[in-house]
Amino acid sequence: MGTVPHKGSAPDKGGLAGQSAQRGFVYLPLIAGWLVPGAGHFLLRKWGRGALLSVSIIAMFGLGLAMQGKLYTGAQDILAMLGLAGDLGNGLMFIIGRMLGLGANPVIVTTADYGTKFIVVAGLLNVIAAVDAHNLRTGRKL
Amino acid sequence: MFTPSHFAAVLLFALFTSTVFGITQREDPRRMVRYGIYCFVLFVGSAILLSWVMYLIAR
After folding, report:
1. For a Cys-Cys bond, which of A74, A111, A130, B14 suits A33, CB 3.0-4.6 Å?
2. ipTM at complex level
């Protein structure tokens, strides 16, 4: 899946095989970028872009938690379902946060509400960044 | 606990979001920076404008 098929004459075969090995799994930057912000760009050796994306998304998630924002745990209603979908975009940060029991407090103060939105938007931005890494990988974007 | 003012939260939100938008929505670095700044100004500008609108409605 995701590799160049081996077709053509014998002299071309080596080149295509090499190209195939170089290309590898097409969805790796997408999955890596989702799990760890910026990792998809790092895999593609886009160090500067990856670092900026990583810092922005991790900082946004971290500030959201520091503001006592909530991590959505279930889909009790449509808004909670949408919030959970956004939170899941954070990949490993969301899973580790849940395992550590972070973001479990009820939202009481105003800044906690801002924090909840920061966490959801960090997840959505991470999905955009992961899709960007996939587009770079497939050559759709330079 | 981190408790920024509403405007500080807007600035932080706009900064991080504009950075990601700039990198992901444009191809060459110069256009990335320009688009990032454009998004940042729109985020902060629209927040200030809407704040004034709400202030005038509430009076």
Report:
1. A130
2. 0.93
